[in-house]
Amino acid sequence: MSEATAVLKPKMQGESMNVGIGDVEREQIAEGLSAILVATYRLVIKTHIYHWNVVGPLFHPIHVLTEEQYGDLFEATDTIAERIRALGHHAPMMAGKGVDTGIELRASGRSAKEMVEDLISDHEEIVRQMRSAADLAEDKSDFVTHDMLTERLTFHEKALWMLRATVAD
Q: 90 exposed, middle or buried (CB, 10 Å; 0-12, 13-18, 19+)?
C-alpha cells in the first residue's frame, strides 16, 4: 500500500479514547445517533420534494414552512454527524448494517394535507428516536449528546406544532 493510500484509509479513533464514557457506551450512543442521522436525511429529502410539489390553497404557507424546515434539517445532519465523529465513530455510509435507508418519494397525486400528515408522521418518529437516544446519553453521562438532542427535540416539536396548525380544520 502506498503512503498516500495509507493516509487516506479511514481509521477509527474510538479505540483508545478516555473521555469518561466507555467504548461500549460510546458505540451504543453513536448507533442511536446514526439512526437519527439517516432519518433526518430522509426527512430533509421528503420535505424538500414536498416543498417543490405542494399545490392548492395551502401552497404558500406550506411552501414557506417546508423551506425553513428542510434548511434546518440539513444543518442538523452536519451537527449529528460531527457528534458521531466526536464519539470516535464514523458517520453512517447510509447503506447496510441494518439501517433502513429507503425513502418513499411519492409526491405526485398527494394533496397538500396528505403531504403535511406524512411529514408529521416522520417528525413524530424522529422525536421518539431522539427521546430514546437522549435517555441513553443521559444514563451514560454523555451530556453533550443529551444537550444536542434536547435542542433537536425543540426544533421537531415546534415543527410538529406548525405542521399541525397548517392543516387544522
A: middle
